[in-house]
Automatic annotation (TrEMBL):
Gene Ontology cellular component annotations, sorted alphabetically: cytoplasm
Region (Disordered): 225-307
Pfam families to which the protein is assigned, alphabetical: hSac2
Organismal lineage: Eukaryota, Metamonada, Carpediemonas-like organisms, Carpediemonas
Protein name: Inositol phosphatase
Annotated Basic and acidic residues bias: 235-244
Comp. bias (Acidic residues): 266-285, 293-307
Domain of life, source organism: Eukaryota
Domain Inositol phosphatase: 15-112
Amino acid sequence: MATERQKLVIQRQINGINHCRQILVPTKGEFRKGFVLISINQFNIEQERVVLLTKKSYWRVKYNFDTKSIERSEETPLSEVTHIEKGYFKYPKLSLTKVFDVGAQKQYGVRIYRKQAEANGVMLDGETVGIRESVNPLKKMQPFRTFRALDCVTYEYGREVINDLCAAFQEALEAIAPDSGFYVSECPLVRSDVIGPFSAVLNAWQVGHYNKDLIDDDDDWDEPVVKKEKKPKKEKKEKEKAQEAEEAAAQFEQEAEMAAQTALPESDDEDKPAEEAEEQAVEPEAESKPDAEVEGEMVEPETEAVIEAEPEAEVAAVETEVAQVEVAQAEADEEEEGLEL
């Protein structure tokens, strides 16, 4: 089911094809099919062109979709078309353009070859064009025209458009010259790299495109295009700042909750060593008490008096023994004196 955007683009292309047909192919029954394609010239510049296929020739038309006018046209008889090559594009191995134009290598294109190419009176018969001749814009020496589908379609649909073009050419040529030897082959199409990466820049700017207000490089055609109202830059910046502040606040709250959750088990662990230290401090106090105090707490008052009296009796007995020893010594001294006399 086509969206409004698709319908608008398709209708604009159909109107352009019909206008070109009315001017260039006025004879009834001559027109076969029309396409809006991207033509790639010898400088690798992409240009939007209308291709009209008739019973005897095909037209390459530069049509201005804005002013609805034909700016330039070129007719090539089908009798001069030798063969068609179709395939995916690629750049030469040593080309820098392929680094800047990655999308071109995903596109599917077609190259229509002709017998003769005129350039200042020189006739070429399918020969390869040299670089020196190709850089001269006054010499159209390429014996072929290169096309691809528009950017508004997906790569897969672009391939279908090219296959449809090849089938239309083959049918038209078989109708006028069955034994012409015309054929369609599939091979990689090498794009020109005459001006280098500058061609990729010009193609990115869509030079030569008239449908760029309706067509872009997005492949998402399922969603309708809704025109967004342009908001002032200040409001946009304020909105972005408010959004950033909300995100920062939410992140801060989340971090605070995580910190609170992790802090609870740590506080319990901190209290445990304090309690253990208090218990250890109490234990030495109990151990440092004298045995006498501990034992005294368990002894009755009467036994305490007996315990205090026992040392006094022992002191008295010792004093008595000392007195007796002194008396005995004195008697011994007196006997010795008597003997001497």
